[in-house]
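User: I've been going back and forth on whether these two constructs are worth ordering. Before I decide, could you fold them both?

Assistant: Sure. I'll take them in the order you sent them. The first construct and its structure tokens:
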Amino acid sequence: MQLKVQPIDIKVGKFKVVLNSSDAKELGVNAGDRVRIKDHTTVTAIVDFTEDMISPGMIGLYHEVQEQLRREWTEIVEVEPAEKPKSARIIRKVMDKQQLTKDEIYELVKDIVEENLTDIEISAFLTASYIHDMTEEETEWLTRAMVDSGERIQFDMHPIMDKHSIGGVPGNKITLLIVPIVAANGLLIPKTSSRAITGAGGTADLMQVLAPVEFTAAQIKDMTQKVGAVIVWGGATNIAPADDKLIKVEYPLSIDPHCQLLASIMAKKSAVGADKVVIDIPMGSGTKIPDMKTGRKLARDLISLGERLGMDVDCALTYGSSPVGRTIGPALEVREALTVLESMEGPNSLIEKSVGLAGMLLEMGGVAARGQGRDLALETLKNGKALAKLKEIIAIQGGDPNVTSKDIQIGEFSAQIKAPSNGYIIEFRNKRIVQIARLAGAPNDKGAGVYIHRKLGESVQQGEPVITIYAEKEAKLQAALKSARQDPPLIVEGMLIERVTDIREV
């Protein structure tokens, strides 16, 4: 069928076209099917329907298809039905709990990266993987396919160090301390980080307060070799692009298949050339990992996959039932981290977790003996070498190396939630704290967030502030404040919670 082109200047992230329902019916295609568009080149695209946006005899081409065809839009193109890609059948095998071959997994990842699959098809793959999981061999192939789908960084010097947190605990700003501690001791650590998806501030969001974070793989390599480290946004590179596309579909589904979690972490570590990796696994109420048993299993699986990929992996099971430090939100967290680097003044939870994980990396990198890494990390923090190294990292990424904690600007609008009575913080709800920070504008509004005055188990007097909410816009502050009052993130009680006087009450 010959159809006249109508450009649709919208990016949709896939090769997609829009047909009038009458033309689609004549072609014998349904929504989600593929058509082949022939011109001087050929493009296969996914079909959407419309009754009125596109007239009969025309085909609407989204931006990606236009770019692929590269021609003026006054011409006629030939349109015909196309078969579904091979990976659509491969997904059905996953749904039927059949093991995939290496070639099938590579074909699947290729189609994901090249946008040949619909979101429904990718959702089916993720859901089936969530239900049935994958074998160790399949997970290894999935990881390798993800690595091979994008750019890789290959360093001339070794070892290359890296760290990762699986997330789930707010205020986890430890990368701003760990990376300069490790680099200050002569090790290379090219830290590619993520932006927040459901949180109030990913590491890339925090670092952006201090310096630009978007660089190519070649630039990351060059900067790391010059100063020993970077803290950058991995999404600006073409490193393991399949992972980013899968995460985009995972988010609305609220699922994280075990095999995909493993592959996601290890693919990005492998792609940056990491030899030695420490993985932070926060555990506890409100985190992704509810208990020690689950945490140990994940650790074993990560270590095993690391061995298959030629990486030395150690895992740290860490306390995650309460935020790290007392701040949630990019600018607040950066200010807290800088204060520790400048003066060692700050929350013990932030200092201890940072030097503990940094110490593991120092031992794995061979610059500290077994059991002595923490002490070296702490000394590097105390003597100012970590701060000096962070300034080097900031400078090479294009930021102001002379910035101090006092220079970090937080939201001009603020409000406090105060304790309703004397007592103790008996419950701290991580997810609610994050929700309130996001309502205030974090992470997009860098100055928005929450300061925590009292944490779990700490005493408080009636009328004292338990949290302060900061925002850059007054309307967002009021929205966050209203939410915090309706559903408080902390519960204050006296040590006597309930009096029971009759067996019938129990």
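The second construct, handled the same way:
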Amino acid sequence: MTELSPARRVALDILLDLEESGAYARDGLDASPELRELSRRDAGLATRLVLGVVATYGCLDELIDTYCEKPGRMNARIREALRIAAFEIVYLGTEPRAAVSQGVELVRTRAKSAAGFANAVLRRIVADRGVYLATEDVPAGSERDTVSAARSAGLPAWLAGEVIASLGFERARLLFGCELEPAPVAVHLNPHDATAEDVLAGLRAGASDVAELPGCIAPVASSELMRTDLLKRSAVAVCDLNAQVVATAATMPGDCLEVGAGRGTKSFVMAAQATRCGMRRSAVAVELSKKKNRLNRRRLERAGLIDCVCFVTGDGCDLDRALSETDRRAGGRRLFDSVLVDAPCTGTGTMRRHPEIPWRLLPEDIDRDMPGLQLALLTGAARRVRPGGQLIYATCSVLQQENVAVVDAFLNSEVGRGFALAPVSQAPIFERPEFADAAAYVRSQETNRGLFQTVRARQLRWSFLRPVCPSQNRLAIARASYCSAQRSECLLREACGASFQLLGT
């Protein structure tokens, strides 16, 4: 009998807990005491299995159910064990015999009588893996191309179709090609902490190939970061590079408003950047969740960055009510020099980090709910921009419905007619001497279609920033995704257009 690896046993326990609780995968991983007891190698495998199964479970179930007479009656524990083995076979590239034998043992721990059934199903998956990924079961045509792209990335076919429609097939293919790879991690330094950078020097995951923003460290080994106290003492904040670009561009002297503070990451970056360059600013961060606001306030207090930031609990779609106390203290309707709308979105540009997204989304979320909410937030925020100020609209979606379509609708509205497009590199902070290198970096990657950012070839990142502004105001839309793989510079240039610049090797 094959000995079951501890990594797979722990992965199964975590996945069963997630299915019962409905929690997010990364929260489940963080809360697992079993995971912390594993060796680093086993912990890494268990983490990869949990995130991978969550990201692809719809495709895995489609394949598993093909070989079951009554799939609807399958025990949930057996199904979860089969998902782990199927993920290894189809997406992880585990040696087939090892994947099958470990999968059978995993099923045996939950139902001894199902071991033979599991062996038969998994052997069929090994035999038919190529047929499934090549979509030989789908009629030839454009639909087959979409289904093939979806299956290769473990996505629902309808969502793959939306991404292709928004990005074009070649750029979408780059995104799909790295969908199941671990995402690179970036952090932003607290300028008040004198030791954090030295600690991080030993946590670098490799040399960076991007001109980093002041305060930005990337890439960082996340597993090593979690073993330090840097996050606990607010010495750093985990913040994606593109998010740091957006937050930095939104930082300017005077009064600043952030609509949709979320977990406060951009609040941290903006306060840190203002402190770093000696900028005098007063910021108001609006967030609907009282709990998030409380946690955000505590983090900035620990970081020593709270002096210039006031957290307000309220609905970004009704800023007059949310800012009523602020307006009262100001003696009238308060206007701001910089307004950042960090809009709720489908998160399709962050699926590598949040594997639940693809299978929790519904078509109506994109076609009906999100764009209307985003436009309402943007319109309300625009009314709070002081003449001479800037307005930045940011999403982490790659879909046109949430980016270009929303901005176009805004620009054609009564409120939006006073705004016009402008390059993000013209953000006032990039004119400061201490940000000269960052400005050069942004300009070097900026085109009339947006801003392209890259890291090392196997962690290639693509992002898009499209600014909008009145002759004296600015609005930026940001959409982000991750593209990587071992591809030639020629292919990358062909896929991303002549404006694409490959940095590093």
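Notes on the second construct follow. The chain has two domains: 6-133, 187-496. Residues 180 and 352 are 6 Å apart (CA to CA).
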